[in-house]
Design a protein that fits this description.
With 380 residues, this protein is mainly alpha-helical. It is built from 15 helices and no strands. Helix 1 packs antiparallel against helix 2, helix 8 packs across helix 12 and helix 9 runs antiparallel to helix 14. The longest helix has 43 residues. The radius of gyration is 24 Å and the shape is flat. The two termini are 25 Å apart. The relative contact order is 0.11.
Length: 380
C-alpha cells in the first residue's frame, strides 16, 4: 500500500490539536472524578456550592474545548485525506487498474488515525505530569479536603483508545468515498476543479477574479484561517481574565493553547494555499505580473475569514466567561465581577494583525521566489 506510518507524522496539525484537547479534558475530568470522591466529607452549604461550581465548570470546559477541537480535527482529517489522494492520484489509479477494490485501497488509510493516538497519548501523559500542581492550585485556599490525583482507566479508554479507533474508521470511510473516481481520471493525475463561477452580472478584473476563485477553490482553508483567528482571539483575551478569575497557571494554559493552535492552523493553511497555487503564480509571472500582485491574488482573499474568526472568538470568550461568573459561580463569595475587557481586545487585535501580516509578507516573498521552470517541469 502507498501509505506508510511516516505519513502519519505529516498530520502534525491533528497531532497538536489532539494534544491540546486531551490535555485539557484529562486535567478537568480527572479532577472532577477525584473531587466527587470527597463529596460526603462536605458539610458546609457554602463549600457545597463551591464543590458544585467546580464540578460544573470542569464539565463545561471539557465539553466546550473538547467539542470545538473535535470538530476541527474532523475537518482537518478530511482535508489531509483529500490532499493525500489528490497528490497520489496516479499511484491510486494504478492500484485500481490492477484490480484493487476501493475498500482494499481505503483500508490502508487507517494509519491516519494514529495521528490522533500520538496526540492523545502525549496530551494524556502531559496532563498527569501537571496534575499535582493543578490540584494544588484548584484548592489553594484550602476550602476543600485534601485529595491526591488518581488514575482512572475509563479516561484512558475514552480519551485515547476510543478516539483513535473512531478516527481510524473515519479515515477508511472518508477515503473510500473519495476513491469513487474513474480510473482514467486518477491515472491522469489531475483533479478536476468543481469551482462554479459566481454570476453577478459583472466582469471582474483578472486579479480580483483570481482572488475570489482561490478562496472558493479551497473552502477548508477558509475554515482553518478563521479557526486560527478564533483561537488567538478567544484564548489571548481569556488569558487576561484568568489571572484574576482563576489562577496564573490557568492564564498560562489558555495563552499557550491558543497561540499553539493559532500558529499551527495558520501555518498549515497558508503553506497549503501557496503550494496549491504555485502553478497559477508561475503562469501569472510569465505574463508579467509582479510578486506583489501574485501575492495579493493568492493570499489577500482570506483576510475577511480571519476578521470574522477574530470577531467570533471575541464574542465567544466574553459569553463563556460571563456565563461562568454569573451562572456557574453565582453562589460563590468573593468572585470578582466580570465585564468586557477593551484593553485585552485592543492588545489581541493589534498583535494578531501584526502577526498575520508578517506571515503574509514572509509567504509573499516565498511566492516571489517560485521557480517558473521548476513548476512547469513538475506539471508535465
Amino acid at each position: 500500500m502507498v501509505i506508510g506510518i511516516k505519513d502519519t507524522f505529516k498530520l502534525i496539525g491533528i497531532i497538536i490539536i489532539s494534544i491540546c484537547a486531551v490535555f485539557v479534558c484529562t486535567l478537568f475530568l480527572n479532577y472532577n472524578i477525584d473531587l466527587q470522591s470527597i463529596e460526603d466529607q462536605i458539610n458546609s452549604v457554602e463549600i457545597k456550592s463551591l464543590f458544585d461550581a467546580l464540578v460544573m465548570s470542569g464539565t463545561v470546559v471539557s465539553a466546550v474545548s473538547g467539542g470545538c477541537l473535535l470538530i476541527t480535527s474532523v475537518v482537518m482529517l478530511c482535508f489531509y485525506i483529500k490532499h493525500y489522494i489528490d497528490s497520489h492520484r496516479k499511484e491510486l489509479g494504478i492500484l485500481k487498474a490492477l484490480g484493487y477494490s476501493n475498500l482494499r485501497i481505503s483500508s490502508g488509510f487507517w494509519v491516519f488515525g494514529l495521528s490522533v493516538f500520538f496526540g492523545s497519548a502525549i496530551g494524556f501523559a502531559g496532563a498527569f505530569c501537571l496534575m499535582p500542581k493543578f490540584y494544588s492550585v484548584q484548592n489553594e485556599d484550602k476550602l476543600l479536603p485534601e485529595f491526591e490525583p488518581g488514575f482512572h482507566f475509563e479516561l484512558l479508554i475514552s480519551l485515547v483508545i476510543l478516539p483513535t479507533v473512531i478516527f481510524a474508521l473515519m479515515s477508511v470511510v472518508y477515503s473510500m468515498l473519495k476513491m469513487k473516481t474513474p480510473v482514467l481520471e486518477l491515472l491522469r493525475g489531475k483533479s478536476v476543479s468543481k469551482i462554479k463561477a459566481v454570476k453577478d452580472g459583472k466582469d471582474l478584473p483578472f486579479l480580483k477574479d483570481m482572488k475570489r476563485a482561490t478562496v472558493r477553490g479551497r473552502k477548508s482553508l477558509v475554515f482553518f484561517i478563521a479557526f486560527a483567528a478564533f483561537c488567538y482571539s478567544a484564548m489571548v483575551q481569556m488569558s487576561f481574565e484568568m489571572d484574576e478569575l482563576a489562577s496564573e497557571m490557568m492564564a498560562f494554559m489558555m495563552m499557550g493553547i491558543g497561540l499553539t493552535l493559532a500558529f499551527v492552523t495558520l501555518f498549515i493553511a497558508v503553506t497549503t494555499i501557496v503550494r496549491s497555487n504555485a502553478k497559477s503564480v508561475s503562469i501569472m509571472r510569465v505574463f508579467g505580473y509582479s510578486s506583489k500582485e501574485c501575492s495579493t491574488a493568492v493570499l489577500s482573499g482570506y483576510r475577511p475569514a480571519a476578521l470574522i474568526g477574530f470577531a467570533v472568538g471575541t464574542g465567544y470568550q466574553y459569553l463563556l466567561l460571563k456565563i461562568a461568573v454569573e451562572v456557574v459561580f453565582k453562589d460563590i463569595e468573593n468572585v470578582p465581577e466580570f465585564d468586557f475587557n477593551l484593553r485585552a481586545l485592543i492588545i489581541a487585535a493589534v498583535s494578531f494583525v501584526i502577526i498575520y501580516e508578517v506571515i503574509v509578507y514572509l509567504y509573499s516573498r516565498k511566492i516571489g521566489k517560485i521557480s517558473v521552470k521548476e513548476i512547469m517541469l513538475d506539471s508535465e
